[in-house]
Specification:
This protein is an alpha/beta fold and 210 residues long. The chain has eight helices and seven strands; from the N terminus they run ααααββαββαβααββ. The chain has a seven-stranded mixed beta sheet with strand order 3-2-1-4-5-7-6, with helices on both faces.
Amino acid sequence: MTIDEKATERTRARYQRIAPLYDAMEILAERRYSSWRPRLWSLAQGPKVLEVGVGTGKNMSYYPDGAEMTAVDLTPGMLERAKKRAAELKVAVNLQLGDAQALAFPDASFDDVIATFVFCSVPDPVLGLTELARVVKPDGRLLLLEHMRAGNEVAGTIMDVLNPAVVRMTGANINRRTVENVQQSGWQLEQVEDMGMKGVFKLIVARRAK
């Protein structure tokens, strides 16, 4: 698989454009996510943990004590805000620009890889998830919070129709089939838990396939 450079650049440009407004745009959504984030991060075992799509650093308050944290984001504007948040919280984290589809880390570098609401916007989610399987250690784990296409076919079809406009405005796809994408990408599912809106939001735990 090869990276679609044009699609990746469009995604970077969208998030660069909204970076100054991103936290304000997410205020209402964060009311829902505020209990989900710490729960996801409580599952991290480490000691070496990679967060993909760090954004403005919303997960930093939940980083596990004693973990050796690395975090990447595609967008310079987002990364600058993450750096400011890390400084304010006095969080030790190695922050880098990075594309989930082509990470600048050797094979088997991390014990856990974690992302929250990221694979709705990675241009090629299967490529990105396959890359995460590459950089995790044998028997390492993937921990995700994601929103995806509704299982109800009527609602799913509506999401399909609305998706092109939503992507243009926000950069995020609302009709990804993320559980299936994880299964296609070198991971074995261990846990899939519905978190809200009848399965649109899910917590996913997977282990690198041997």
